[in-house]
Structure formats: C-alpha cells, structure tokens
From TrEMBL:
GO terms for molecular function: GPI-anchor transamidase activity. This is GPI-anchor transamidase. The keyword Signal applies. GO terms for biological process: attachment of GPI anchor to protein; GPI anchor biosynthetic process; proteolysis. It comes from the Eukaryota. InterPro entries: GPI_transamidase (IPR028361), Peptidase_C13 (IPR001096). Belongs to the peptidase C13 family. Pathway: Glycolipid biosynthesis; glycosylphosphatidylinositol-anchor biosynthesis. Keywords: GPI-anchor biosynthesis, Signal. Pfam families: Peptidase_C13 (PF01650). One of its GO terms (cellular component) is GPI-anchor transamidase complex. It comes from Heterorhabditis bacteriophora.
Length: 139
C-alpha cells in the first residue's frame, strides 16, 4: 500500500474561525474540516500536515477530527501573527514572520546534504522570541 502524505499551507488574512484570501474569498474552519473529512473518506491521504499562517490561525483546525492530521499554526486562536520584512519602495510588508522562519528552516535544515531535520525541529523553528506569537500544534 502506498502511503499518501498530503501537505497544506494556508496563508492570508485570518480571524477567529476564518481565513481570507486576498480579501476576496473566505474559508471557514468548518468548511476546512468538512473538506479534510471528505478527503479522508475518499482515501485521498493517509497522513496530512496542515500549516495555517494567519492571525488567530489555530482557530482554523478547531473542528478537524479526521485521523492522521497534524495541524500547526503561526498563532493561537486569540493571538495575532506578525510581519517580518517591509519593502520601503512600496511601503508594505512582504513576508510574515512564520513564513520567513519556515523558508529559512527549509533552506538551511532540510536542503542540507544528509539532513537529519525532523518535524519536531520544524515545529521548534519559530520560537516566540522570533515569531512574536505562539506556534500552535494539535494532532
């Protein structure tokens, strides 16, 4: 049997129980839980890593009860996530802190020859003093 590992990375503007994509489309935590349950019932994954990177992003996985899902978030349900780097020419932030440290982890830990990086290493790659928010995790 082939083990299907599915990875989902959600980012946008978040609030309690929802995520907005470019201020146009909205995804609720109930819709997300339903989609994952449907995927499980249709044998579309064996294990899933769900990463939510928005303000209040832990609220996105509150309703997920499907087996084999590890969810992590850049902030807890009542907490904001913060930006990292500003582009002075256009006057806006261009990357979030959690995304910055995720990319840094992938580039320096995972891509390294003979990498021994673990999922636990990833989950610890953005401590509160760097991210300025609390990384949430639930299985």
């Amino acid at each position: 049997m082939i083990s299907l590992v599915f990875k989902v990375y959600l980012t946008g503007h978040g609030g309690d129980s929802f995520l907005k994509f470019q201020d146009a489309e909205e995804l609720t935590n109930v819709d997300l839980a339903y989609a994952i349950q449907t995927m499980f019932e249709d044998n579309r994954y064996h294990e899933m890593l769900l990463i939510a990177d928005t303000c209040r992003s832990a609220s996105m996985y509150e309703w997920i009860s499907s087996p084999g899902v590890l969810s992590t978030s850049s902030s807890l349900t009542y907490e904001e996530s913060y930006s990292y780097d500003v582009d002075e020419d256009i006057g806006v932030y261009v990357i979030d802190r959690y995304t910055h440290f995720t990319i840094k982890f992938m580039n320096y830990k995972v891509k390294a020859l003979n990498s021994t990086a673990t999922l636990e290493d990833y989950l610890e790659s953005c401590p509160r003093h760097h991210c300025m928010s609390t990384v949430g995790t639930v299985t």
